[in-house]
């Protein structure tokens, strides 16, 4: 009788343990973006999701939220820092408040090609700054090679020199490198959430904006502006970041898989950006907006002091060294 009772108890314990301990610990990464699903970044995130889940055998699940479903980029970063399971694709300049050197990725007229930005984003020097980011902010940078394209000036009047931007209220990203670049170009920097840009232009709360070609079409800004001037003043190189608390739940083996796929899909999304950029500008022009080239020399001269103003001259020298120029 005692033996039977013991056997029953043992079987019950085994069953209980079996129910309590799954074969693997599943971790979900929730990643949001302010951009539309058909934007190259959105497409890249969906591909990243599928490949991560397959490569980790479902041990890491990625949920993607488009069109500011989780908030504006700054709000998502704040949520992640507070410990929420949230990640996003962000311009690196927003992260410079934690690691000032990171602002160099958004410096004006720094990179001539995506290949240069990709090379620097994987350099030892840059990755060291990425390691500091986790310590200083509670954010983990998975990859910094998600290219969104050249930022151009969107206005209601023709622009040919920085003087034409005098007094123009231009929406930009609320990080010092962006604000000082737009100010140096002659405009009045006005940071507001990306999701509010269309209505702000429509209602006249701002006079202008600056954005990459695919974002102009994705947000339908061609409906509320008259001119696109191809300044390309900043090459928008962005980073995929996640909450450190969610990241630390992932095994080292799976962390390597996720990082490698973040870099690989960053390149995929970036190539989409490059491929779709000219088409986007053609679509904008077809909608009745004037798309113009411009002499960049006056704009480059106007922003040349931004590096010294924000104490980024040493970082610029590091970029030039890595790129061999």
Automatic annotation (TrEMBL):
It comes from the Bacteria. This is C4-dicarboxylate TRAP transporter substrate-binding protein. It holds the Pfam family DctP. PANTHER family: C4-DICARBOXYLATE-BINDING PROTEIN, PTHR33376. CDD domains: PBP2_TRAP_TM0322_like (cd13669). Keywords: Signal. The keyword Signal applies. Residues 1-25 form the signal peptide.
């Amino acid at each position: 009788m005692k033996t039977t009772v013991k056997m029953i108890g043992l079987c019950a314990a085994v069953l209980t343990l079996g129910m309590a301990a799954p074969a693997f610990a599943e971790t979900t990464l929730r990643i949001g973006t302010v951009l539309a699903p058909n934007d190259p970044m959105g497409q890249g995130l969906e591909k990243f999701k599928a490949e991560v889940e397959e490569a980790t055998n479902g041990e890491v699940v990625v949920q993607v939220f488009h069109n500011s479903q989780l908030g504006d980029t700054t709000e998502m970063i704040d949520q992640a820092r507070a410990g929420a399971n949230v990640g996003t694709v962000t311009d690196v300049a927003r992260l410079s408040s934690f690691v000032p050197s990171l602002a160099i990725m958004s410096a004006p007229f720094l990179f001539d090609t995506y290949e240069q930005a990709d090379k620097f984003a994987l350099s030892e020097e840059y990755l060291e700054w990425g390691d500091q980011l986790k310590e200083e902010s509670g954010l983990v940078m998975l990859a910094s090679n998600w290219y969104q394209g050249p930022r151009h000036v969107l206005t209601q009047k023709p622009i040919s020199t920085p003087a034409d931007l005098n007094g123009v209220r231009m929406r930009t990203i609320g990080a010092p490198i962006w604000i000082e670049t737009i100010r140096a170009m002659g405009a009045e920097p006005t940071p507001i959430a990306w999701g509010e840009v269309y209505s702000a232009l429509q209602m006249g709360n701002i006079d202008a904006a600056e954005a990459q070609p695919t974002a102009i079409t994705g947000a339908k800004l061609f409906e509320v502006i008259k001119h696109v001037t191809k300044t390309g003043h900043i090459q928008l190189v962005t980073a995929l970041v996640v909450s450190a608390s969610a990241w630390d739940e992932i095994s080292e083996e799976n962390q390597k898989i996720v990082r490698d796929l973040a870099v690989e899909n960053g390149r995929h999304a970036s190539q989409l950006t490059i491929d779709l950029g000219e088409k986007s500008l053609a679509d904008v022009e077809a909608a009745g907006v004037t798309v113009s080239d411009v002499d960049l020399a006056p704009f480059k001269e106007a922003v040349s002091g931004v590096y010294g103003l924000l104490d980024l001259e040493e970082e610029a020298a590091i970029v030039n060294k890595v790129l061999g120029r």
